[in-house]
Design brief:
The complex is a heterodimer of chains A (325) and B (392). By secondary structure, chain A is an alpha/beta fold. Helices cover 38% and strands 14% of the residues of chain A. Chain A has one domain: Thiamin diphosphate (ThDP)-binding fold, Pyr/PP domains (Rossmann fold, 3-Layer(aba) Sandwich). By secondary structure, chain B is an alpha/beta fold. The chains are: A alpha/beta (325), B alpha/beta (392). Chain A: It is an enzyme of class 1 (oxidoreductase).
């Protein structure tokens, strides 16, 4: 069954898919929609979702005991082990199915693990890599807000150069983080027996389709979602989707997928907007823009974004019909 | 006493793996680490041969092993793992989470020195580092006990008054790799004893969704810790019930304290694990010489069987505590617990602390005899830590 917006809108008009309202995330946060889009796709396609979460903004804001915003089975274990934890849950499911206990053989279960960029790019990378290598049937979704936002805007492996953070601030001498964002999508795609995709809440249909693909994929999937933190990106509460859209249109966050090594760019932007536009819309780059080397840093980022975009198009051409496994 | 049908010469690791085979857990997630490795290897062979129905997760680290068994146990599976030393240390964070989530996970620990410097041989520093993690700690003296306690651990962990994880400690190499004769239960008898898993609030009961591992702030965290404390208080009673039932099927009766020749003993030595066996032998020798000596081996270290120990030690002449782990800047862990228990007894014995066997250093009869002789001559000093087998 292919999904359409009307169908989803009708289906969930008076029902909360997975996560309910009343959680305590900041107004305008993009993260709950990342979870919602994924879970509504699963539910609409007849799956019963089971969710694991890494420590982070969303975990602390949705499960303040004795309350919970989750109306699906949910487990949080620690910061760096959402993938390992869900691999245990998924394995338990297979064991219990075999033994005829607890699990309904007529149900389609969908196992999700969620983590922020800290729990995914950095501290959780080992457990994520291990779980994907072992081939557990689960979907890992990173909501990437490019820093440790839950604990007050510290740098992560996903932080772009020049962004203001508290552990690598822009100062008189240093221009903040100098390294480019870690390319987690390519790291995960290199696991080969995996479906990997980038999504953005500004492109819901593309998002739904990729979740559907992940649900149908026989093996692990990894979905990277652009998820602006309105608080530390210093944008207004109503700007998360707009900024995400700009990230896609500038090529800063290209929408593509890699299925067992086969690349496909799912949104072909005819002419990429300059990355500067994405940067200038956000307060987190304001300290950078005041520095004399701002142009240098932005130009370097622009070069990277452009060459990666061209490389993606080339990879799409080169890998067409050539799955790696 | 039931007839023994399955008497075999095996290593402790084989004995533990065989217990795991009979338990046939739903999920085992494990990573190899010396000297636990053969446990995982034997068990993996059982899985490969289809002897068990277990789903095995060959994880990429011990941290993930404990994380995966937490996920599996929360999901509603009977989940087990095994580890040692640095592997246990790497699990540390999740060891606490398993206990606070009240998940009845059973883990075999082949006790080994904790780095650094790196050392692969036996001591108890790994388990002692988890002393306050909220896990029940059972301690085996030999391969037989490692086998028996592994079976009993399942029943204790899953008991509805307990619901806490259990680690079964057995000395690395000494027990894990040493070959001994072990009496195994018949598969059917063992299977019946462990029974069907008792599951509470399973994640996979999707009709009744639950949230595991929520954020627990200052308004409830304290109460939840109190519940863990309360659960520990039920362990002694449950241990005795389970031991009683186990005795009926095996003829082997366990108690919180394993007591050897203590009825008229004036001097009692206390130690955990395999060294208790060497002490028993030394006690036999000393008894022949007319000394009234005995051994007490705590079969369980957490919860600490304080009341039983108090009753037993009250009025004795001397108590000698042997620790296979140090506590830097404080007293050795077993000694500290025993000494603290003795504060409340009516007639306090003399007491002395001896640290031995760190990093696999051999402990010999003459070392044990030396410590007893200190006691005989009234030379036990409560505030002095002494060392057995150390070059000084």
């Amino acid at each position: 069954m292919a999904l359409n917006i009307m169908q989803l809108a009708t289906m969930f008009a008076d029902k909360h898919p997975g996560i309910t309202s009343g959680h305590r995330l900041c107004p305008g946060c993009a993260a709950p929609n990342v979870a919602k889009f994924a879970l509504m796709t699963a539910e609409a396609l007849g799956y019963t979702p089971v969710v694991g979460f890494a420590t982070g903004c969303m975990e602390v804001s949705t499960t303040i005991y004795p309350y919970t915003a989750w109306n699906v089975p949910y487990i949080h274990n620690a910061f760096e082990n959402a993938a390992a934890t869900v691999s245990g849950v998924e394995t338990a499911y297979r064991a219990l199915l075999k033994k005829g206990r607890l699990v309904d053989p007529n149900k389609k279960y969908a196992f999700f693990a969620f983590g922020g960029d800290g729990g995914t790019y950095d501290i959780g990378l080992q457990s994520l890599s291990g779980a994907v290598e072992r081939g557990h049937k689960f979907i890992y979704i990173v909501y990437d807000n490019e820093g440790y936002m839950n604990t007050g805007n510290q740098r992560s492996g996903a932080t772009p150069p020049g962004s203001q953070t508290t552990t690598q601030p822009v100062g008189k001498k240093l221009s903040g983080k100098i390294q480019l964002k870690k390319n987690i999508v390519e790291i995960m795609a290199a696991h080969e027996n995996v479906y990997v995709a980038t999504v953005s809440t500004s492109e819901p249909m593309d998002f739904f389709k990729k979740i559907e693909k992940a649900l149908n994929f026989d093996g692990p999937s990894f979905i990277a979602a652009m998820s602006p933190c309105v608080r530390f990106w210093r944008v207004n509460d109503d700007k998360a989707v707009e900024i995400s859209k700009l990230a896609v249109e500038t090529g800063y966050w290209p929408l593509y997928e890699v299925e067992r090594g086969v690349y496909r760019v799912t949104k072909k932007v005819k002419e990429l907007k300059p990355v500067r536009e994405f940067i200038e819309k956000q307060g987190r780059f304001r300290p950078l823009l005041k520095r004399p080397d701002a142009d240098e840093i932005i130009n370097e980022l622009q070069e990277y974004v452009t060459s990666r975009w061209e490389r993606l198009l080339a990879l799409e051409e080169a890998t067409k019909d050539k799955p790696i496994r | 006493m039931p007839e023994v049908k399955n008497r075999q010469a095996v290593t402790g690791a084989q004995a533990v793996a065989n217990a795991m085979r009979q338990i046939n857990p739903d999920v085992v997630a494990a990573y190899p680490i010396t000297p636990q490795t053969p446990v995982v290897e034997y068990f993996a062979q059982y899985v490969a041969d289809g002897v068990v129905e277990t789903e095995m997760i060959p994880v990429e680290s011990e941290h993930s092993a404990m994380s995966a068994v937490v996920g599996a146990a929360a999901a509603g599976a009977r989940a087990m793992t095994a580890t040692a030393a640095n592997g246990l240390a790497l699990m540390h964070e999740i060891v606490y989470i398993a206990a606070s989530s009240r998940l009845p996970i059973v883990m075999a620990v082949a006790n080994r020195a904790l780095s650094g410097p790196i050392n692969i041989h036996c001591d108890h520093s790994d388990a002692m580092a988890e002393r306050d993690s909220g896990w029940i700690q059972l301690w085996a003296e030999n391969a037989q006990e490692a086998y028996d306690l592994t079976l009993m651990a399942i029943r204790i962990a899953e008991h509805e008054d307990v619901r806490l994880p259990v680690m079964v400690n057995f000395d690395g190499f000494i027990i894990s790799h040493g070959v001994e004769v072990v009496d195994f239960l018949d598969d059917e008898v063992a299977k019946k004893f462990v029974g069907e898993p008792k599951v509470m609030y399973p994640l996979l009961d999707t009709e009744h969704p639950v949230t595991h591992g929520p954020l627990d702030l200052y308004d409830y965290y304290f109460e939840h810790k109190r519940q863990q404390i309360e659960a520990m208080k039920h362990v002694e009673k449950v241990f005795k019930e389970v031991a009683e039932e186990f005795a009926k099927i095996s003829g082997r009766k366990y108690d919180l304290l394993d007591k050897y020749k203590i009825d008229d003993a004036e001097y009692i030595m206390i130690a955990l694990g395999s060294t208790a066996g060497t002490i028993k032998y030394t006690v036999d020798l000393l008894r022949e010489e007319g000394h009234k000596v005995g051994v007490v081996k705590p079969q369980i270290f957490r919860p600490f069987p304080k009341n039983e120990l108090q009753e037993l030690l009250n009025g004795r002449k001397g108590v000698i505590v042997l620790d296979r782990a140090a506590s830097f800047g404080a007293e050795a862990p077993l000694y500290e617990a025993v000494k603290s228990a003795l504060y409340e007894v009516a007639v306090r014995p003399q007491i002395g602390s001896y640290v031995y066997g760190l990093g696999g250093r051999d402990i010999k009869i003459e070392h044990i005899r030396k410590a007893f002789e200190d006691a005989f001559s009234g030379n036990l000093i409560a505030d002095e830590e002494r060392y057995l087998g150390l070059r000084e």
